[in-house]
Amino acid sequence: MSPSRILLLLTLMLVGLVTLFQQIGVLFGTSCLFSLVLVVVFLTSEGSPLLFAQEAENRFWTVVATLLSSVVFFAEDSPLRIGHKSPLAGCIAVGVFTCWISWYDRWLRRRRLVRAPHFAKPSSTENLRTLAADPAELDASIEALAKVDEAVARLDHYFIPSTITRLWRRRETARVERFIIETLQDCGADDLNMILRRVKLGLLVYKLKDSEPMKSWADYAASFLFSPSTKGARTELVDLLAVQRVADLNVRSRVVLLDALQQMPLSACPRRGELWVRNVMLWTRGDELTELKTLCDLKGDVHSLHKLVYQDIRESSIRTDILKHVQREASVQSAHRLLRTRKSARSNRGSRKVLSDLDDTLLCSGGHYPAGLDKRWPRKAIYPGVLAFYRELDLGTDEGDFRSRLGNLVFLSARPHVFSDLAERSSYAKFAHLLQAKRLHTMPTLLTGDLKTGGEMMLRGDMEPLAQKKAQNFLEFQALYPEFDFVFVGDNGQGDARAAELMAAASSPRGGRLERAYIHIVQPIDRTHRGRHHDTPESAREAWDKAGVVFVETFVDAALDACSRKFISPLGLRRVGVAAKKDFEVIQWAADDRRKDMRRQELDDALRRLNRALVVDYGLDAVPLCDAVAPVSVRKRKSGSVQLEGVIEPGRAVVTPVGPGIVLSSRTSKDIGLVYEVALDEWRLCDRNPARAYIPSGQIVYEQSRKTALEAFRSSKQEPAPTSASDADWMALSEVRRRTDSAGSLGEAAGRAQ
Question: Is there a contact between 291 and 251 (Cβ–Cβ < 8 Å)?
């Protein structure tokens, strides 16, 4: 739920309470207002000692439901005062409503606990290798997993809270808990890793409780209200995994353990929980530490590595120990990369983290305040080419298999964090949908703002706190990943240019640096927020140029700049262009929306610049434009050739009045009409590169019998025969474009050829 919707909901609730005071009664309205105040205090008290564990949250909602239902069914001025006529019916109604609220809260929590982390599973070859290694050992692992699953099912009662079941099934519960701990203690390292990867560890840690034998009801009440301090089954289990057997856990098992501790949360075991996290992190070194950190951010929920280190861990000394360990291991990795050792060659990670804004960068806000300003595209439309641009920046210049790589995509959003995952839930659902549709290459993590900076932006229109908050998030994230460099992608609607300036100025030379910042233009550049210390737009532009900030109209232009700086490969540049064309075609436009033609022309201009770079600089095939292709009519000639009337796609072999060639691009002139840019194969410059000519569409002829030309081309180059005529066209185009540079027009070529 977005913050604007939460604010609207609270406003409607206040209006309803005023109506209750005026129309119904003072007692009923006051009770509802008190319940609303309790809910607001609860939502703004995340991390409070009173909410030390998930059990405490459930008890809070149970108490609020009891108070509110008692007023609704027993207050004299309540419209539903059934308790006056029948106290028994009123008590039954209060009990049913309270139990339903408690069960629904437990159901929501249980759904989060049983979900599996969203990072990739082991490859099929690894599984087959494990199966072929020792079938007997595999059978033992499966048997141990089945026993643990059965024990967890006996602890997990769907309708009855575990706090209540422990009262009348205390001995059986203790026996099941002891069986689980002993099973995990006695199994081998491979069996332990398989069990942790497949068992619902978050639910298991939640169901095991830390409690001492209760001698009286006073002891039970104290354990109900306050966190138990004695060592019980939960502490013994986590201590076994995070301390005693941490060396036996592989990287993915350690990530699952850290995720279970965050779900608990850490405050349920004060001090001990933070020490467990510290021990797991310090036992992980080198590339395994990088993999662990990255997998913590690939889970697809709010429990990221940033939240673990900077929010869940309260003790500053423990946080400092973890950050020092991360910095020390990053220095060792940097030394391996500089020396080009085998250890650095085996790494399956990239060298760059891609940071991006969300609104008006990935998704168009449609001009809806306070999300963004861009009204040029339909609301919630994904900008053409942006997802492919993320992927290519993450991949870099390495053209290897990307599926074995871990993703490095992070979103820095101005959306404020409210409580738990209320604000982030919709964003992660969108990410999961894009990942399932194979449009997003990896599951990203999300770093949000806060209510203070969001309130200043909404009430005062001040973008500086948003920029500073994003810069602060960047610095904290940089301290977690000092072995990476960073590229930032944002827009000029809400202070991203200023945030990029602050990021570049505060980048640590010992850690990762901000290599480049690409700012999507959604309003005139002169109106971009430039900070309070820049008096004029010129001084701000100088600071942005110094910080490496580049303003782009489309993400195709951003890919062109990234390719020129060796951030992405030429093949990756072409993939961005192809993806931009496909993304534009799937955008849903209204039938009478005039913006579609304007945006198509804007993207076509960017694709023309892209094609010129692909052909001239990199010798690759051009990307077809987004222009609506007119139906091609054929007019036969006596020579056996045909003349095409309409738009000819780039890459088609044609014959012109001055010789054969390949169509590179097309443009429309007011005086001449449609003109094609053609690379002439028979006209050579002194450096043997083909010249280019600009030919009107009426003089372009397409050879019907292409076999003769293709055979002559293959005989001169001694290349294998193509499989089809279209393959031959692209082969000829690639050969021409490999030798094409920034030559002049046809007139200059005719004067210099010979």
Answer: yes
A 10 A CB-CB count for 386 gives: 24
Strands 409-416 and 352-356: parallel
**pLDDT of amino acid 718:** 39
How far is the C-alpha of 510 from the C-alpha of 505, rounded, in Å?
14
Q: Which residues contact 738 (CB under 8 A, 6 or more apart)?
A: 619
DSSP 629: P
433 burial (CB, 10 Å; 0-12 / 13-18 / 19+) is: exposed
C-alpha to C-alpha distances, 93 to 24, 79, 139, 158, nearest whole angstrom: 21, 14, 52, 22
Burial 194-212 (b: 16+ CB within 10 A, else e): bbbbebbbbbbbbbbbbbe
Please report the pLDDT score of residue 20 as a whole number. Answer: 57
CA dist., res. 173 & res. 284, Å (int): 34
Residue 567 gets which letter from DSSP?
S
Provide CB contacts within 8 A for 146, sequence distance 6+: none
Q: Which of 242, 225, 333 lies closest to 281 in space, CA to CA?
A: 242
Q: Which residue has the tokens 């201590």?
A: 239
C-alpha radius of gyration, the chain, whole number = 32
Which segment of 24-28, 297-301, 338-342 scores lowest on mean pLDDT? Answer: 24-28
State the DSSP code for 483.
T
User: For 75-188, where are the alpha helices, taking DSSP H only?
Assistant: 82-85, 87-113, 124-133, 135-155, 162-168, 170-186
Alpha carbon distance 694, 51 (integer Å): 73
Strand order in the sheet with 409-416: 445-449, 409-416, 352-356, 485-491, 514-520, 549-552
Q: Which helix (H) or strand (E) holds 487?
A: strand 485-491
**How many distinct helices (H) and strands (E) make up the chain?**
31, 12
Provide the CB-side half-sphere exposure for 349 (13 A, CA). Answer: 24
CA dihedral 358→364→366→369, nearest 10 degrees, is 10
pTM (two decimals): 0.74
Q: Is residue 145 a contact partner of residue 199, using CB atoms and an 8 Å limit?
A: yes
Mean pLDDT over each residue of the chain, to the nearest integer: 77
CB count in 10 Å sphere of residue 706: 15
- 287: part of which helix (H) or strand (E)? helix 286-296
Q: Is 415 exposed, middle or buried (0-12, 13-18, 19+ CB in 10 A)?
A: buried
Q: What is the mean pLDDT of residues 327-334?
A: 87
Instruction: Output the six-digit token pair for 8.
Output: 């609207």
Note the pLDDT of residue 710: 42
pLDDT digits (tens, 9 = 90+) for 399-437: 665 555 778 899 988 777 766 677 777 888 889 889 888
- Give the percent of the chain with pLDDT over 70: 74
Residue 71 and residue 31 in contact, taking contact as beta carbons nearer than 8 Å: yes
Residue 507, helix vs strand vs coil: coil
Per-residue CA distances from 424 to 8, 112, 338, 363, 613 (Å):
18, 14, 39, 15, 40
